[in-house]
Amino acid sequence: MEQKLTGVPETLLVPLWARATETKHENPIIKDEKAVEIMAKIEYDFSKFKNQEPTQISVAVRTELLDKAAKTFIDKYPTATIINIGCGLDTRFLRTDNGKICWYDLDLPEVITIREQFFNESERHKMIAKSVFDYSWIDDIKAKGPVLIIAEGIFMYLTEQEVEEIMDKLAHAFKGAEMLLETTPASLVKQNQEHDLIKDQYKIEARLQWGIKKGKDIEKLNSHIEFIEDWHYFDYHKNRWRIIRWLSLIPTFKDRFGNRIVHLKFI
Fold first, then answer.
1. Most exposed among 108, 139, 141, 162, judged by the fewest C-beta atoms under 10 Å?
2. Is Transferase among this UniProt entry's keywords (predicted)?
3. pTM, to two decimals
4. For 96-122, how does the pLDDT look when each residue is reduced to its tens digit (9 = 90+)?
């Protein structure tokens, strides 16, 4: 299948490549055989990602962190509803399904068209082909039990105003829900304004636009957001980070260059 995605949607191929690559590692952080299968069927020049080892490790670590956090939530609430915003070619449902949860994968129509070639919907696993800004998707969610919202690899490409708007919609539509949100350091966003990092590294037309310095800064977006905890990528699997392992001991470096998963609640 030839790949025609461009811009931000094209960035979904980076984590697909990263998870497939990690699965083949001799001592993998995560295993995602579905990613290996999908990557083999997509006609795309994945070789342009081959020198992006820090990115590859970051995706493996974030996958592990999000899997563990999602499983913890599901163990606590076995009939939960999970909303995966900007799902791309994510395969988390396959790894976390307990036979009772209800899962919604949300992404742009062109992305869902690709997903449909690799995933089948079921009574408990639905795909929504809409932009996150088309808030009619909220009406498509038939929540049963507590709600967990996951957003990885998407919010950093939105403006702060757009992030605030989305968070306000989520806070009002899903009061009491929890969210797992990938964030990028504000310093990297500033650096991206001077140098197009995504284009330079991956030859993809997408620009970083929003970031935060600390996990608790997420509360500044909306008075209905309560920060719970966060997990910094550099704190995990330090043996894989090479020189970054030592640089991350410097607090300013860690804050300026490492992504994190922020766990929050809408109150």
1. 139
2. yes
3. 0.91
4. 999 999 999 999 999 999 999 999 999
